[in-house]
Amino acid sequence: MSCTEIEELSCDDEEADTRCDTTSAFYGKGKVKALKIARTNDEYAILFGNLGKTVTLSTQLKNGLYGFVCHLYGYEGRSDVNSVRYEMFKGGKYDEELLPPNQDSLDNHIRRANYQCYIWRHAVQPILRLPDFCDHGWKLDEEGNVTFNWMSLAPAPDSILEFVNCKCKKGCENAVMKCSDLCKCTGCKNSSTNITDSLESDSNTYNSPDECSSSENSDDEN
């Protein structure tokens, strides 16, 4: 399968999976890296080509997307994001931003991406009857605004959370980690909520091989 065919099959759907205005993103994983990985395997192109064809995700499609996300974090051939998170943590990557989402959070992300792609695929219909978006990775806050449903399950059992705390005021920053709600600091500038899109580690601007070669030829002529 040619690179052009892969891009035609997957670009719009890969856009929803990696980030658009209505879905979430993987911190530090921009569209360039995702597209490069998608181009390494024809199965990924077919995978993204099927995203959004039905409003309900098939088990096969979800498993394929699990594998893609694991590959995005350097674990090709794996599909269990929880085990990948565990291995990365054991390897010294303690910062949550460096780890893939857990299974529950990833499921919600995939639901959002699929729902968005389903809307794009049916955008030419004058009237589109959609299922409740609250069943597909979003929720309404107390003021009635639509927001992400990051997780459907608790991050840990209540018995564990009751005993987890952080009394340090500078230790997290010294350890190059982001502070959490459990920290005792006030007016903290080290919180993960202060992260902006400008910190994304790779650009979202992608040049195809043809565009790159054309640019190089133009530079040579000048």
Question: Can you describe this structure in just a few lines?
Answer:
The protein has 222 residues and is mainly α. It is 44% helix and 3% strand.
Tell me what you see in this structure.
The longest helix has 19 residues, at 103-121. This protein is 44% helix and 3% strand. Among the domains are: 31-138, no CATH class; 157-191, no CATH class. A two-stranded antiparallel ribbon has the order 1-2. Helix 1 (3-18) crosses helix 3 (42-50) and helix 3 (42-50) packs across helix 4. A hairpin with a 5-residue loop joins strand 1 (138-140) and strand 2 (146-148). It is mostly helical. The protein is built from nine helices and two strands, in the order ααααααββααα.
* Helix proportion: 40-55%
End-to-end Cα distance, whole Å, is 35 Å
Report low-confidence residues grouped into runs of 5 or more: 1-11, 195-201, 208-216
How many strands in all? 2
Q: Work out the helix count.
A: 9
Average the pLDDT over all residues and give the rounded result.
77
Radius of gyration: 20 Å
Q: How can the largest sheet be summarized?
A: 2 strands, antiparallel
Along the chain, the helix and strand elements come as: HHHHHHEEHHH
Helix-strand category: mainly alpha
Shape type: globular
Share of residues in strands: under 5%
- Spatial order of strands in the largest sheet: 1-2
